[in-house]
Amino acid sequence: MKKIIVLTILTAFFLAGCSTQNMNSKKIKVAATIFPLYDAISEIGKDKVDAVLIVPPTSDPHNFSLSPKDIEKLQGVKIIFENDIGLENWMSTLIKTLKDARVINTSEGITGKVENNNPHIWLNPDYFTAQCSAIEKALVDADSVNASYYEANFKIYTDSIMTEAMKLRSEIDKLQVKKIISFHDAFPYLAEYFGLEVLGTLEETPGALPTPQKIKTIEDLIVKNRIKAIFKEPQQSTEIMNAIIEDTHAKVYMLDPIGGTEGRNGYLETMKYNVNTIIEALK
Ligand SMILES: [Zn+2]
To answer: What average pLDDT does this structure show over 105-129?
Structure first.
């Protein structure tokens, strides 16, 4: 009798375990290469997706390499959302390993506006919402039963971003000086949307140190244009930036092209942080 009770309890546990697993497996496992796309898949997919972020927010996505642990956590992924435009050259290894995963290039269709192969298009909210649309379409494709769920979430998410973006743009409009200089060439699309002008950038190749001539050119630009502020990024080395500050007395501010850290927990918060930092620096 005791044995039977034990068996019954064990069976109940086993069944309970199974049903939990079944419920989890109903979620589609999807991954995004960078944080802005991860935020979009999380907000559009909400509890219907199991979202994985590939490049941690503090790492440089241009020069990333996948560890065996990264590949491990991507097992079972159905869709990988990438930015492309040369950002994720390290992806080829991953695609070979995860043969069942569909890769969605979220920048496809907006490449006509891409200049000099600069990949940072998500920093223009118009382009980012186009990337969100590619995400929504792929989720609907993969899980058409929940189509209206994804469509509704997409609308709420992108509407809140565009409402805030327009508000911030009208704030930028009021500024007298709209010229910026950055360390890493991450902001041409942000500048395009918000009506700013990128005067120059220090880094010619992501991750490579600028030449002494380049530093001299930028210092001259700062002096000639009476630039009071320059911008660095948390994902890049900034020793050179510090030397320039000493030479020119320009003040340094931090812009974050990626987000995903304290105070910049979503795309919306990161956009607000960046534009408000620029306003603070330029006014
Ligand atoms: Zn970058």
So the answer is: 86
- Rounded to the nearest angstrom, the distance between the alpha carbon of 135 and the centre of ligand 1 is 21
Residue 231: beta bridge partners? 182, 253
Q: Over pLDDT 70: what percentage of the chain? A: 88
Evaluate whether residue 187 is within a structural domain. yes
Tens digit of pLDDT for each residue in 43-54?
999 999 999 999
End position of a domain, from candidates 167, 188, 207: 167
**Nearest to 274, CA basis, from 190, 185, 179:** 190
Please indicate, yes or no, if residue 9 is contained in any of the structural domains: no
Residue span of the structural domain in which 177 resides: 168-282
CA of 75 to the centre of ligand 1 (A): 27
The predicted model scores a pTM of 0.88
Q: Which of 89, 81, 67 is nearest to 206 (CA)?
A: 89
Query: Same domain for 131 and 141?
Result: yes
pLDDT given for residue 134 in this prediction: 98
What number is the average pLDDT over the span 14-38? 73
Closest listed residue to residue 129, CA positions, set 169, 97, 160: 160
Confidence label for 19 from pLDDT (cuts 50, 70 and 90): very low
How many helices and strands (H and E) does the chain possess? 10, 8
| Residue 9 CA, ligand 1 centroid: distance in Å | 55
Strands (E), the chain: 28-32, 49-53, 79-82, 102-105, 179-182, 197-201, 229-232, 251-254
Number of domains the chain is built from: 2
Both 118 and 201 in one domain: the answer is no
Measured in Å, residue 61 CA sits from the centre of ligand 1 at 7
Task: Kindly state whether residue 8 falls inside one of the protein's structural domains.
Answer: no
Same-domain check for residues 135 and 177: no
